[in-house]
């Protein structure tokens, strides 16, 4: 009798628990949510779809009436994922102060990014943003960028591609090397010379890549405590991360020491020298080596992978859309001919000439819509809130807007949202038309909008305008590329192509 009573009590307890769990995880705003398991939350579904995580979440976001869903992993609070443009504007602008990066993200990336602009909140972020806003709009920095990029294209990129015509090469790796050399030159006046026909291994570049990969993997641990335990005991991936970061920090220290010897020398046009000159002008004292180190790492992260992965997806899309490719080439030729200098299309273009290339900018924007360099961004709620779609937010909740999904929402882009269609960015007269940054969030929006957006677009347009009329890139594989998320949406295993010289 006692055994029967115990079994009945156990059954009632189990039924009560599952009823409580169901009611607790039922959503009143019409969310279409992935299956939620007791204790484990949506973790089993996340693991099952880890190789297609962006498509999987996009499918649920598209089905949910408010384009917002709730996910939960073991040992952590539920977090919200949204592709609702009104929610995004509310988070990034309207109630900006309630949605900082938050300690979860900052703590996870602090070993790599420190308190740099991409991993800082409040005062530290405002200080670095203020410093950047002094220099990024200046004509002298634009000229320095254009001259530096033009030199890299003419003396490094084009000769390298010409030397490997007819051979299989990873185009994404070529773009990574070009971007790495360019950002190092722009940010702190150092040229690693990684873009060479011999494709040398650069210790700092490799260490930086591995550091970003291992830092990103922390977000995918079963529980956040796991990577902290491994770091404490110097085990596995955390041991390797520590070793790679030592190389990164040694390089940063060398750059800072070299620049300190020339403090205030305005003839050095790189960003680090400009910032160090500003600190002397403003306060008469120097920023710490740690502060400058974090700035250096932030610049490399911003300038290296974002443009290179964007260009990789762009050239793959062109291979699938030859009519778009031909239109871009024709536009480049037309701009060159308007300046009455035959052959200019094989070299670099001025700032004003690049601004004339509306169709090229439309095609690059369309590529970013479908394959954003950074596929999502996450914030932490400082206090309870309600989003415009009715989603209730508790204090400490992670709120993530999925940029990849936003580019694929029929409600935002129409029934042809999955098509690569540059014309959607053009007016009836052929002029480029910007979209709302809360709809097209590839460069973020609001106070934290990417301050280097225009520079990134100029760099990409310069590269395409120089390469495309001169070389044809045949895909060396018919397999559609897959992505790997390593802070940026890189093509997994690279983009194998065979360059051919055009007639």
UniProtKB/TrEMBL annotation:
Give the transmembrane ranges: 6-23
Recorded source organism is: Selaginella moellendorffii
The UniProt similarity line reads:
Belongs to the cytochrome P450 family.
Which GO molecular function annotations are given, in alphabetical order? heme binding; iron ion binding; monooxygenase activity; oxidoreductase activity, acting on paired donors, with incorporation or reduction of molecular oxygen
Task: Give the PANTHER family listed for this entry.
Answer: CYTOCHROME P450
- Give cofactor(s), names only: heme
Instruction: Tell me the CDD domains matching this sequence.
Output: CYP86A
**Highest rank taxon of the organism:** Eukaryota
Q: What is this protein called?
A: Medium chain fatty acid hydroxylase
- UniProt KW keywords: Heme, Iron, Membrane, Metal-binding, Oxidoreductase, Transmembrane, Transmembrane helix
Q: Where does heme bind?
A: 450
Under SUPFAM superfamilies, the record lists: Cytochrome P450
